[in-house]
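Thread: quick sanity check before group meeting

JM: Hey all, I'm pulling together slides for Thursday and realized we never actually wrote out the predicted structure for the chain we discussed last week. Dropping the sequence here so it's in one place. If anyone has concerns about the input, flag it before I start.
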Amino acid sequence: MKIAILGAGSIGAYLGGALIATGGEVVLIGRARMAEKIASHGLHLSDLRGRAIKLDPAQIVYAQDPTALAGADLILVTVKSADTAEAAKAIASHAPPSALVISFQNGIGNADTLRSILPGWTILGGMVPFNVVQMDQGRFHRGTEGELMLEASPGIAVWKDQFNAAGLPLMEQTDFVGVQWGKLLLNLNNPVNALSDLPLKIELSQRAYRRCLADLIAEAITVLQAAHIRPAKIGKVGPRLLPALLRLPDFLFTRIAATMLRIDPEARSSMWEDLQAGRRTEVDYLNGAVLNLAVSIGRDAPYNRRIVELIRRAEQGGADALSGDVLLRELQASR
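JM (edit): ok, ran it. Output follows.
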């Protein structure tokens, strides 16, 4: 049974590499720069628990042409949210309608975009809770914990053993909208981390940055409550307790929330990675999703609005790293 990874960036390459290591038939589909990296170095996967997998270039099937979707039984969509519609068109043109399609993308609504372009196909929303960072020499490092989550479906059963063997157990969820919003609340830290230019562990160890994140999350929760959406608990702390926990002084936070700092020292957000590479970020699909929801119900989300503006400025190369105190003042001045 053939698995196609459509959008072989950090997450796609990590998932694909782990599945290849189990002996699965996997094709990675992505851009030329990744093809060159894999051709030179292969794939080296590592994680915070010390796991290490090394795949030589000859073990990896990599394609830049979406015709490689032909014959796929399972398609994992891991493209950036802005590319979802284009990915759906490629699937429609080249993949068999019998294929199971799972959106393992950040943000809200990607699975719905796929469904709108692929009527009659089996499309599932999925969520990747962990962070993967591209390192030198073809290494892809998983720096945080968590298991893959996706909408419950009978079609998943045939794939569970293979994903378990790859160290990627599939956790089925009945309330997937809540799961998506629960993950998005945590992803509101992506722009904070990107603007800090610090590893996640160092950033979250500083109260000023945590206060920024607390304000973004608290504002989002207020909007979700007004929209009658209940975000799911993704980590060890429920959404409503997160802002208060994040605002604690450093000496208390490091004791009470030690598990939140159980992050590999090398881990950074994907948004930081995008800024470093000069790519457009997904901020419109994260903090922008909060802002859009607020507008749709006649409200505003000034903190999330301002951080979207700051990321847009950073995308243009017009900003240096911001200290926690400076970023906090930027957000609070937006009220």
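AS: nice. The longest helix spans residues 207-226. The chain is about 45% helix and 15% strand.
JM: adding both to the slides.
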